[in-house]
Amino acid sequence: MSARYQVTGSTAVEISASIESGIRTGALPADAALPAVRTLAVDLAVSPATVARAYQDLRQRGLVATAGRHGTRVRARPTVTVGRSALRPPPAPGTRDLSAGEPDATLLPQLGPHLAALAAAKTPTIGYADAGTLPDLADTARRRLAADGVPVGEVTLTGGALDGIERVLDAHLRHGDPVAVEDPGWANLLDLVAALGLRPIGVPVDDDGPTEAGVRAALAAGARALIVTSRAQNPTGAAVSADRARALRTLLADRPDLLLVEDDHAAELARVPLHPLVGATGSWAFVRSVSKPYGPDLRLAVLTGDDTTVARVAGRSRVGAGWVSTVLQRLVLSLWRDPGTTDLVDRAGADYERRRNALLSALAAHGLTGHGRSGINVWLPVPDETAAVTALRDAGWSLAPGAPFRLAAPPAVRVTVSTLTDADIAPLAAAIASALHPSPRTGLTA
Ligand SMILES: Cc1ncc(COP(=O)(O)O)c(C=O)c1O
After folding, report:
1. Which of 259, 291, 404, 433 is most deeply packed, by most CB within 10 A?
2. 302 Cα–ligand 1 center, Å
């Protein structure tokens, strides 16, 4: 632990507050080791049980993690950071930022004309009494989901995919419940699972989605829920194939009690067919966000599922946030109905596909195997993430280290391809190749 930070307190609440404050202010940085329970108990003249309770509280709120003999450490992205930018290191000045996982802003629809049309339409003011999901939006969403083979039930809305996933997990699970998650998987989801005090069980992922053996092992280990990304899996770009879907549905049919959550965040951008798993279990939810095709700031996702799950999510939202603003709903509906926007989203999907494939081919020409069947990222296994990220930063490219996306998966880096130009591909692939296989230094003596 940082020698500068002195934990204080004589009760579990005070000790956990002192550590939380250290994490919030940065005095206890990511990965800092906390003292062993007994050591801190002696230092603070309290019982080991008091310190253990403080650590448990911090663990359940996603601030620290305990990993066997490695002891208790501050999580890489603890849940008391101030802003989302704190969740990833800023790109080094002067480098091209390929670390963000963001869509290309120039390929997102311009909202101005849609907002202007909505303003001119003089729609009635919505008050508390009439608020909720607009029937038009629900019908359109249902049609779009059904066209992709999703077994659509009732539809409700959430403030994005992650909000939807959180509400579904909250509706079914309790602190400490084991949850099967993709490994590697979306870092924000891993953070959410930690923040909810759930226990992640990593399921390996290949290009066709979560592996059958991995899901089988997670079920055997007692997973109460499974969260799967349908397409454009973040970070690997995996997409659940028809064969994998068939195999997983057969496996899941034996576990009707399992909660299955499917995240189709790439939606209209994916450019590979959807092979949904939902419906194979009794409790399920399918969440489709508008963030990637239409803009992350829209904060709207459509959620369907079995009747109980949708009713729980909608009922709980009603006594909390209330509803997703109908202003936002009208905007999304306007985007969905606009043929120009549909064309733009198609073009964005095609561009991302071209950029991804170009980078994968250029890497292959250097003998490197990356992954990226769909979406905006390429995932490239590397022997040493820090060395790779540092060497590439020195060559002018900021990539994301794989660590926040991994539980037990081997090291890798994530390259977001959304803003790459044709001219970028060859120099980027060459820079990656030389970062991973530095040529022997000649003519120098130690
Ligand atoms: C796997 C995954 N799900 C969902 C999202 C988007 O979520 P939201 O709708 O909360 O913006 C992302 C964004 O990167 C993602 O990678």
Report:
1. 259
2. 13
Q: CB of 266 closer than 6 A to ligand 1?
A: no
Phi first, then psi, for residue 306 (nearest 5°) are -70, 160
Please tell me whether residue 286 adopts helix, strand or coil conformation.
strand
- b/e map 193-218, b = 16+ CB within 10 Å: bbbbbbbbbbbbbebbbbbbebbebb
Cα 162 to averaged position of ligand 1 atoms, centre (Å): 6
The predicted-structure confidence for 383-393, as pLDDT tens digits, reads as follows 999 999 999 99
Q: What's the CA-to-centroid distance between 304 and ligand 1, angstroms?
A: 17
Ramachandran quadrant class, 222 (left: phi over 0; alpha: psi -120 to 50; beta: rest): left
DSSP state at residue 282: S
What's the pLDDT tens digit per position in 257-268?
999 999 999 999
Q: By alpha-carbon position, which residue is closest to atom 2 of ligand 1?
A: 265
Q: Rounded to an integer, what distance in angstroms lies between the CA atom of residue 343 and that of residue 334?
A: 14
Tens-place pLDDT, residues 45-73: 999 999 999 999 998 888 998 877 779 99
| Atom of ligand 1 lying closest to residue 229 CA | 1
